[in-house]
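Researcher: Please translate sequence to structure tokens.
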Amino acid sequence: MRPTRLEKPAATRNNLKTIAALLPYLWEFKVRVMVALSLLVLAKLANVSVPLVLKEIVDVLDQPRAELVLPVFLLIGYGVLRLCSTLFGELRDAIFAKVTQRAIRRVANKVFSHLHSLSLRFHLERQTGGVSRDIERGTRGISFLLNFMLFNILPTLLEIGLVLAILIKQYDIRFSIIISLTLLAYIALTLIVTEWRMIFRRTMNNMDSKANTQAIDSLLNYETVKYFGNEAWEARRYDEHLQSWEKAAVRNQTSLATLNAGHSAIIAIGVTLLMLLAAEQVIDGSMTLGDLVLINAFMLQLYMPLHFLGFVYREIKHSLADMERMFTLLDEHKEIEDKPDAQALDAANATIRFSHVDFSYEQNRQILFDVSFDIPAGQNIAVVGHSGSGKSTLARLLFRFYDVQSGCILINDQDIRTVTQQSLRAAMGIVPQDTVLFNDSIYYNIAYGRPDAAQEEVFAAARAAHIHDFIESLPEKYATIVGERGLKLSGGEKQRVAIARTILKNPVILIFDEATSALDSNSEKRIQAELKRIARNRTTLTIAHRLSTIADADQILVMDHGRIIERGTHPQLLAAGGAYAQMWELQQQEEIDQRQQESTISAS
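Model: Translation complete:
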């Protein structure tokens, strides 16, 4: 097992930057924020007034029985102030609730939208479980930060200031000195120990994200785990992260206990010194019994928020640690961005041109070398080649998931880097080789091609993809849930859903990336006929493995190691006797062998 150690993120986001990022969301409801802050001040004024009224009540009642008068007005005022200190606080929370929840919604949506705007490169490298956990913790941290920073730290500081002002004005300066020293010792201990403890919190977050990433990855690959009997191996890997998390969590909890003990000791010493000083002055006659009660009430009143202030500060630091990972996602660079003057693509009668395109996913591994070809409007150009020759990369570049290193890709003489990504992708439809569906209904997955389509249009697309009858045979028909990544459907059924989705989108440009690879021979022939029908009069790029499916293409490009080595029609390429002819001969022989094997099985 790998050794575990505490980790700290390489780059810690500045706390002030994180807090500043929330201010625009607060300003959206500036009236509510101002009203909430006003109620906060009123609540604290009422709270500080309670001990003052209590002092008067005690002094009135601390009279000889002959002079004793029931202080009804003071008692009623005491009750009203108690009510107001609570009522104003509850009203403040009710008014501010919309501000907090809207901020959470806006930030979460902004992060979600930003993730969708990042390049394919980022999404191929990201860890889904960790990212989802970072967003979950970050949005939870926003709620805590806004509520506690505004409504606990600020009011506590206000209350401390009011109490010190009253004590300085009415009593011996030593009371204020003792309280000030107690506060300074308390705050110093909180700041020093909390900063030390933050490394444990960050490690907990890091290990939590890693554990969640590994768990989700393992569950998504449930069948693979079962195929190889690696359940125990997966559990051990998961437990490695949990062990690191446990170690940090234990240190976090024990350090918290130490901090709380230190807080209690400081407060106990401060209260004892105050009470000794107050009792001495009552005996001397310089203070009344009511003054003693007032000092004690103020200390008790300060003790709870002060003790809570330490908790709040720690939790705010924890919230900032939780939020920094989420806000770091917003700092991720958008590799592919629209230019400021980007125009909408004019895709009518689209002509596509790849002009001297070089491309590499990584600097030391070039994929495409000087690739040039045209797809005239309404024609079908097919690309064939061995696995890894760069065929599917052409589709990714056409969708502008990446930008080329040199050369350019033009649609109707418009460089796709100069048009908006939305208009570019709206003009294209793709049936990919590996179809991944949403964990929703079949209807939703087909309608995803054009969410505003009428129901009959969705059904028509399903019929065109030869999947309508299958769907109708299911108990829940179109409402059938397809499962995570569509795993409840077979490969061929998922492929038909993808075809129906693309048919529904009705794009100007079509891309078939081995669109029938998951289908059996009979289904493939039916679907191929339908694909040819919908591709008629559309500009089409077909990436194929089975050469028989593209024999009637207007032109066929043969790729090898990122270069176009042959081009021409099917008869021309066969006549040339090159790489294409060899691939054709090999596949024909494989089909003959397969038919003979099937005949042998049938005969037996």
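Researcher: Any highlights?
Model: The chain has three domains: 15-330, 339-427+508-604, 434-506.
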